[in-house]
Amino acid sequence: MNYFITGTDTDCGKTFVTALLVRAARQAGWDAVAAKPFCCGPRDDVEILHAANEGIVPMDTMNPVWLKTPAAPRACALVGEPAADPGLALRRIRELADLHAHVFCEGAGGWLVPVTKESTIADFAAELGWPVIVVARNRLGMLNHTLLTVESIRARGLTLVGVILNNADGLVSAAQQTNRQILEESLGAPLLAEVSQGALSIDWPPAII
């Protein structure tokens, strides 16, 4: 089984959570690897996922489209970089899935980030057709971002596996204390896990395999 990992926005912890999931799956004996079809800016995220894969997948294989500007793929083209090639990325990720039983494919930025003038990350995920896991950063405003993301995923006919809540800020507020309960009441899908940025492991959720 393969999964597409998206987020409510940039810096919500997609790479951190994807790496946790892959490491947990591999420690449980699963043939699991991470991929990041689009990387914009420094390749730090790809390096983190490459380490989670224990180096078994070359970086250019797991990340077929690398643009140097830290912006949306479409924005990279507007400042003079080559246009992102969703078709190439799709082929490479499918080839990776032919070689491994489980691929955790991380998107770029949030769900509707533009990849080209005509397409978004959501379009790429819909073409891939894999079940979707949403990473949400636990902070004020995340309820709206998360529920809108979930609504759009379902509108495209994709399966929502659930949400992983990332306590990335290390703060405690009324919003952060209540977001989990409200999400559980509102989602109609599992809240798969709640993690803190910097955690070394995640409870492996076998229900998503």
Walk me through this protein's architecture.
- With 209 residues, this protein is of the alpha/beta class.
- It has a single domain (3-208), classed as Rossmann fold (3-Layer(aba) Sandwich).
- The protein contains eight helices and eight strands; from the N terminus they run βαββααβααβαβαβαβ.
- It has a six-stranded parallel beta sheet, with helices on both faces. It has a two-stranded parallel ribbon with strand order 3-4.
- α8 links the parallel β7 and β8 (191-196).
- The longest helix has 14 residues, at 14-27.
- The protein is globular and about 45 Å long.
- The chain starts with a strand and ends in a 13-residue tail after the last strand.
- The mean pLDDT is 92.
Summarize the helices and strands and which ones pair or pack.
Elements: E1 3-7, H1 14-27, E2 32-35, E3 38-40, H2 44-52, H3 59-62, E4 65-67, H4 73-78, H5 86-99, E5 102-106, H6 121-128, E6 132-137, H7 142-155, E7 160-167, H8 174-186, E8 191-196
Parallel strand pairs: 1-5, 1-6, 2-5, 3-4, 6-7, 7-8
Give a quick summary of the entry.
This protein has 209 residues and is an alpha/beta fold. 39% of the residues lie in helices and 19% in strands.
Jot down its keywords.
8 strands; 8 helices; 39% helix; single chain; alpha/beta; Rossmann fold; six-stranded parallel β-sheet; 209 residues
Name the structural class. alpha/beta
Strand content: 15-25%
Radius of gyration: 16 Å
Q: What number of domains?
A: 1
Topology order in helix (H) and strand (E) letters: EHEEHHEHHEHEHEHE
User: What is the fold named in CATH at topology level?
Assistant: Rossmann fold
- What's the CATH superfamily, by name? P-loop containing nucleotide triphosphate hydrolases
Strands of the widest sheet, in order across it, are 2-5-1-6-7-8
How many alpha or pi helices? 8
Q: What composes the largest sheet?
A: 6 strands, parallel
What is the approximate shape?
A: globular
